Amino acid sequence: MNIRNYEALSRQGTDWTGAFAQAIDDLRRQGGGVLDVPAGEYPTGSIRLDSNMTLNIESGAALRFHQDENAYPLIELEFEGIAGLVHQACIYAQDAENVIVTGYGVVDGRGSYWWERQRAGKNPYPRPYLVCFANCRHVVLENVTLINSPAWTVHPLRSRNVTVRGLNIKNPYDSPNTDGINPDACQDVRISDCTIDVGDDCIAIKSGTEKTPNRQPCERIIITNCHFMHGHGGVVLGSEMSGDIRNVVVSSCVFYETDRGIRLKTRRGRGGTVEGIQLENLVMEKVMCPFVFNMYYFCGSDGKFKHVWDKAPYPIADTTPALRDVTITGVRARRCTACAGFFYGLAEMPVEGVTMQDVVVEMTQDGPADRPAAMEGCPEMKGAGFFLRNAKNVDLRGVKVRGVQGQWLDIDNSVELEQ
């Protein structure tokens, strides 16, 4: 089926929303099929796909999404782990299976409309994602170029058997919360061969917050052969991790000018466990801090409360998060600016069981000083080595740090190193 067959519903090419809706309805009645979008410009509002459908955005085709909140109906969904009314994504599927979005065309969220409203506090409801699969099974997103997302760019939520490959994602560096790919409470996710250059984290793995109903783990995640540029973090776990994150492999990726390389973040009250993380064969250049494990993360709702910033030990409870069992092998990081690594566990729940093998970090004194972690009291650093507090069973015997002025390792009696 070709969308051009529905051109009569496109308001002389100025609004293809009705054309897409009718074409998809016709596909639904026949049990599914392929909707081809040939070369050309297609201004449109939100597009909602269903089971057994393929949206094929051909080379030379560009979906340009309207800068009008009325083009994105309000639906019940989660945004940053909180359930409520959210504007429907530009491309959306819910409770569907066997859904594919493919082709070498462009999906343009034209997000400046939403970013300006966000900065002015004029978005009464959360902004639309660019692509979202909610409660779906067996979905594929491949090869398209995704630009100018209103919020997170790709958001698989509570979905299983998700394949994301060959994407080119580009959002301005100063665009607010325009993460690249955020699997959230998903299982069996494969992300490969993507280039991601965005205004927040490039990939962020999440599993809801303490306020998320029916929390589920995000697990069995593979990320490989990707290129990350200019984001706040290259591959990030958290801070929404209340449902647990486990069994994650990140391999054969390049990080260039991301603020952090690998970033794990959480805080008291979140609960949940991050464990079973394997990071291997990574190259980083001009990264502010290659490794950040921060359990005092203060951004977002409730982040300024005393229980978040207080460095005294608290009683361990279901709301106490845990970061453990992380193996990092075969990493080369060059021209890093702030520090080689920053691990800061809770006083009552240290970061535990981190092993580094064949890891070389080269620091530069030419870059600016910065604070590697978003936490109260984080020191400003420049050309520093590894900084550890509240950590145990940490093995750094396979690490070399070059170009540091002074000691390469800053620890106190809260740290237990493997000798």
Describe the protein in words.
The protein has helices at 17-29, 112-119, 306-309, and strands spanning 33-37, 40-44, 47-49, 53-57, 61-65, 74-79, 82-87, 91-94, 97-102, 106-108, 131-134, 137-142, 145-147, 154-157, 160-165, 168-170, 187-192, 195-197, 203-205, 218-224, 227-229, 233-238, 245-256, 260-265, 273-285, 289-294, 322-336, 339-344, 351-363, 384-389, 391-395, 399-402, 409-410, 415-417. It has 419 residues and is mainly β. It has a 21-stranded parallel beta sheet that branches. A seven-stranded parallel beta sheet has the order 19-22-24-26-28-30-33, with no helix packed on it. Strands 3-8-11-14 form a four-stranded parallel beta sheet. A hairpin with a 2-residue loop joins strand 6 (74-79) and strand 7 (82-87). The longest helix has 13 residues, at 17-29. The termini are far apart.
